[in-house]
Amino acid sequence: MNVSRRHLLGVFFALVLIVRLAAGVTVGAAANLTYVLEPLAEAFRKQHPDVRLETVLGASGTLYAQVTHGAPYDVFLSADVEYPRRLAEEGLAEKASYVVFARGRLAFWSVRHPLAGADLERLLHDGRFQRIALANPNTAPYGQAAREVLKRLKLWDAGSPQHVIGENIAQTAQFVESGNADAGFVALSLLRSPKLANRGEYVSVPEDWHAPLDHAAVLTRRGASNEEARAFLQFLATPEAKKVLDAYGYASR
Predict the structure, then answer these.
(1) Are 112 and 183 in contact (CB under 8 A)?
(2) How far out from the chain centre does Cα 131 lie?
(3) Cα dihedral 129, 130, 135, 138 in deg (nearest 10)
(4) So what CATH class is 104-209?
(5) Rounded CA separation 207/152 (Å)
(6) Structure confidence at residue 19 (pLDDT)
(7) Is 73 helix (H, G, I), strand (E, B) or coil?
(8) Which of helix, strand or coil describes residue 27?
(9) Domain assignments of the chain as residue spans, ordered by start
(10) pLDDT for the residue 64
């Protein structure tokens, strides 16, 4: 199945899932937020016990495309600032609701090779990694950051079979965890999750090796009339939410 067909099927199944949902808040969220969303939702429900929160995960660029094609998300949580800003400029989101709520970190992770304390530049140049996973740099901000790192180190080759490309950062982590890649660039937040915290070793990528991974949120045009969605967006700025984000390796804004 080619990439465009997979993309269309992803949009279709996401829409099928969403239209089955009644009242509540539907959040389209970047895949790096996979594990932090559950504790965030739990903390939110303590303040709003009657609100039903549903999430759909994907690459930020894919979620953006879904919104432009009518996906009825109430809140969009992006791993970069451009996609939600673009929705606001296109009249598909409420401009006044736009907020930067966290900054992510990129890590280089392996379950096959010892990495702790290693010099990342030397590590990447020593030839031990035959297959390196990264998220699709055309749609996933963490993939864009990984590409910047590889370009900085003069190791980027767009057509290289050495690069294993995931549709989003969660799939990229699966490639590393399963051994389908020797190592990969993943979100630090995934490695802080209970599922992956004790798997393998990682090296944090210096933040000045790539553009900041600022995460932004916005109410979509649909969500602007949903007070529960607005309450969730406002919740992201509370001390309770920031405590959860910090625990997963994000710098809360």
Answers:
(1) yes
(2) 22
(3) 120
(4) alpha beta
(5) 13
(6) 46
(7) coil
(8) strand
(9) 3-103+213-252, 104-209
(10) 97
Segment holding 101, helix H or strand E:
strand 99-104
Which residues 6+ apart lie within 8 Å of 206 measured at CB?
Answer: 120
CATH fold label, 3-103+213-252:
D-Maltodextrin-Binding Protein; domain 2 (3.40.190)
Mean pLDDT of 27-31: 97
Q: Specify the amino acid at residue 85.
A: R
Q: Are 190 and 34 in contact (CB under 8 A)?
A: yes
User: Taking the mean position of all CA atoms in its chain, how far away is CA 204?
Assistant: 17
The three-state (H, E, C) secondary structure of the chain, written as one string: CCHHHHHHHHHHHHHHHHHCCCCCEEEEEEHHHCCCHHHHHHHHHHHCCCCCEEEEEECHHHHHHHHHCCCCCCEEEECCCHHHHHHHHCCCECHHHCEEEEEECEEEEECCCCCCCCCHHHHHHCCCCCCEEEECCCCCHHHHHHHHHHHHCCCCCCCCCCEEEECCHHHHHHHHHHCCCCEEEEEHHHHCCCCCCCCCEEEECCHHHCCCEEEEEEEECCHHHCHHHHHHHHHCCCHHHHHHHHHCCCEEC
- Quick one: which of 61, 112, 108, 106 has its CA closest to 87? 61
Unique residue bearing structure tokens 């984000």: 245
pLDDT tens, residue by residue, 46-75: 999 999 999 999 999 999 999 999 998 999
Q: How far is Cα 131 from Cα 119, in angstroms, rounded to an integer?
A: 19
Which of these, 172, 122, 115, 180, lies nearest to 143 by C-alpha position?
172
Beta-bridge partners for 102? 215, 252
